[in-house]
């Protein structure tokens, strides 16, 4: 599961017992050698799906981590791109890998941007927000986009209940809930709280017009439906 360059079991245990911010600060130097880093297949499929909708001007990577999403923005955006995250450790790694980009440390539940970007992306971050926190995140992204701007992120189809993946994710979420019930500070990381239906409703409430595009390059389930879709949330043009 982890490469030889990745964190040890002891290091992971220490990180899991920390806050989200402190945990990712500790994990940052080895994050790209873990399964938590967004795979190249997802980055590539996202870029391919967005390319016909561009080119874009300024790009924003929301919850950028070590900067993997910057690879997508650089191929799609003609202007300078920005990554925002609240982990200083993650931003240090991102800045080292992409010194030509701009990096901002901020709580994405209160993004400090107003009509500054044409495209915003996010990869693998929604599970770090409780459902009650997502409206603030989506409202902030909406505010950060220029009129007509686009917010895009991949979302996986729910695994079938008979699959091992379903029960593994359920077990992980249950373990995380127990951990947060008995240990402080909390570490929010849930895999089953971001259904497409809920996310679509929340984005619509934030002012977006929402569509989706199948990421067929990532494969299909047995029933023929795509394993993942790209959520496309568009901010209205100024009347």
Automatic annotation (TrEMBL):
Stated name of the protein: Class I SAM-dependent methyltransferase
Record keywords: Methyltransferase, Transferase
Domain of life: Bacteria
Organism (species): Actinomadura rudentiformis
Domain (Methyltransferase): residue spans on this chain: 60-149
Any Pfam family: Methyltransf_25
GO MF entry, a single one: methyltransferase activity
InterPro entries: Methyltransf_25, SAM-dependent_MTases_sf
UniProt keyword annotation of Membrane present: no
An individual GO BP term: methylation
Keyword Transport: no
